[in-house]
Specification:
This protein is mainly α. It has 9 helices and no strands.
Length: 212
């Protein structure tokens, strides 16, 4: 159906719990009500969701079968295994946090944990598939859940200290010029409609910088 070129031949034929997640959860049960984890079929709702997402990824987004199998379906099965609910739309932040924590134990590199987070963010949250969503903003603010960021990401303090250490530094305005711009756009009256648009653009940029 996907008209993929074998080899290898990719089959999405496991709609059960993830064996790696089952082993981790049984060896180190999460706090709360006692649950028994085993290799068994997922609920019909979870199976339907996985099938729908796989179809969307392959036929609409034109991703490869290997990508969908390893980077989309696998993390979804890990998430479904760890979830305390049989329906994907009732997922909670705790369910996703447990799945990320479990995935990190399954794969020490952290890739599987990142995939779980990515699926929740790009599929469940983006399409508003959960009643308690969006979930990922809450995970990003939870200090107990370590979400890896790019090694190039810097803190606000780092940006403020080395903002001038960049290519074409001569194009950057001086600090005095910046504050003069702030004074103009917030206190002066625009003389034309074009000035009004420029003032609005400058105000938007300044407000966004203040939020950072």
């Amino acid at each position: 159906m996907a008209q993929a070129s074998p080899p290898p031949v990719i089959w999405i034929n496991d709609f059960g719990t993830d064996q790696g997640a089952v082993s981790i959860l049984n060896s180190n049960p999460p706090p709360g009500p006692v649950r028994t984890y085993g290799k068994k079929p997922l609920s019909r709702d979870w199976q339907d969701l996985i099938k729908a997402i796989a179809i969307d990824q392959i036929f609409i987004r034109m991703n490869t079968c290997s990508h969908v199998s390893g980077n989309v379906v696998r993390p979804l099965r890990v998430l479904a295994t760890c979830a305390a609910t049989a329906t994907p739309w009732t997922l909670t932040v705790d369910d996703v946090a447990l799945a990320i924590h479990t995935a990190r134990k399954i794969q020490e590199s952290g890739k599987l944990a990142d995939l779980v987070f990515g699926v929740v963010k790009s599929v469940l949250d983006t399409n508003h598939l959960t009643e308690n969503g969006p979930i990922t903003p809450l995970l990003e603010r939870d200090k107990k859940v370590h979400v890896r960021t790019s090694k190039f990401t810097k803190s606000v303090e780092d940006l403020r200290t080395d903002l001038e250490e960049r290519k074409h530094v001569e194009k950057l305005p001086e600090r005095r010029a910046f504050w003069e711009l702030v004074r103009i756009v917030f206190t002066e009256t625009p003389r034309s409609f074009l000035d009004l648009l420029r003032f609005a653009q400058a105000k938007t940029l300044i407000v966004r910088l203040a939020r950072w």
